[in-house]
Amino acid sequence: MTASKRILILGAAGRIGRTAAEAFRDAGWEVASLVRGTSAERIASGTQVVEVDARDTESVAEAAQGMDVILHALNPPYTEWPILVPQLAEAAIAAARASGATLVLPGNVYNYGTDMPPVIDESTPMHPTSRKGALRVALESRLRDAHIRCIVLRAGDFYGAGEEGAGSWFDRVIIRYVEQGRLTYPGPLNVVHAWAYLPDLAFTLVRLVEARAQFGEFETFGFPGHAVTGAEMARAIEQALHRRLKISGMPWPFLRMLGLVVPTFRELAEMAYLWQVPHRIDGRKLEAAIGTVPHTPFETAIMDTLDGFGLLKKR
User: Fold this and answer.
1) Fewer CB within 10 Å, N- or C-terminus of the chain?
2) Are 73 and 12 in contact (CB under 8 A)?
3) Which string of DSSP letters, residue by residue, matches 4-64?
4) N- to C-terminal Cα distance for the chain?
């Protein structure tokens, strides 16, 4: 275990960054929240505001001085990934080198393409079949080749932690029209999909970081989270709301057609396979490293998430 507890969070106004900031703060860490502009209003209370443009490599490196850990929680809009994912990675790497801090990256399953197996672990070959998947593989390869201390915690689609920060598939798609009595599910209801409840993911990040002295230079871990079918997701939402809901599918052909002229729809349609190919994440390596993995019961996590959006009060 390491004694020093100072962390810089890049993207602290986003939902992952803010939730992680709260978890590290509550665990006794000194937390510096790096943001820019009006997003400073959304950072976790009790953390230090650092107003810096994350694309400014020199300024980010300066902000990282004295830090023990840097959390790279920046997630730009899909349409800006080709430019910003590599650029933001270089700033994070420079900061880790300048400070000697361990760099932590919340990973995802985009690295795996349409041939991904039902169970993903740290040895699963990465064969991306999307542009964003290729960018994520390149990002992790760059971090490995940078020869800095780095931890990647791979998780499924996130949900939870209320309305602050950028949205997710859960709130932007699945429950978007729940007040009108309708759910929109992006894939077949019998296909298993990997999800990560943000409070659990954040507590896991704290535990991993506090055990970092035992890891190699570059380590990846899988976060098991909740692997559930669309039917199980819909049932948990209905039970929390105490009402039946009409379930509709995602109009993928229409989105692909619109994607010819609207880049955002093109980028969304590229990820359709993740809802059609069953997958879950194996967490045995993570459990061996930190012990019991934080895991809120699925029904409780759904209820807390809906409550965070104020939906339980409106039922």
Assistant:
1) N
2) yes
3) --EEEEETTTSHHHHHHHHHHHHTT-EEEEEE-GGGGGGSPTTSEEEE--TT-HHHHHHHT
4) 46
Q: Mean pLDDT lowest for which of 163-167, 264-268, 286-290, 291-295? A: 163-167
- Alpha carbons 271 and 169: distance in angstroms, whole number: 11
* CA 205, 209, 214, 216 torsion-angle sign: positive
- Measured CA to CA, the distance from residue 189 to residue 241 in angstroms comes to 19
Rounded to 10 degrees, what is the CA torsion of 188, 194, 200, 201? -130
CATH number of 6-166+196-225+278-295: 3.40.50.720
pLDDT of residue 21 exceeding 70: yes
Domain residue limits, the chain: 6-166+196-225+278-295
Distance of alpha carbon 160 from alpha carbon 308, whole angstroms: 7
> pLDDT confidence of 314, banded at 50, 70, 90?
low
3-state DSSP assignment of residue 151: strand
Question: Are the C-beta atoms of residues 159 and 168 closer than 8 Å to each other?
Answer: yes
Contact 43, 87 (CB under 8 A): no
Tokens of 132: 């964003």
Q: Are 210 and 102 in contact (CB under 8 A)?
A: no
Contacts of 35 (CB under 8 A, 6+ apart): 11, 12, 13, 42, 43, 49, 50, 51, 52
Q: For residue 245, give the nearest of 194, 187, 176, 307 by alpha carbon.
A: 176
> 248: number of CA atoms within 13 Å, CB side?
13
d(CA 192, CA 233): 10
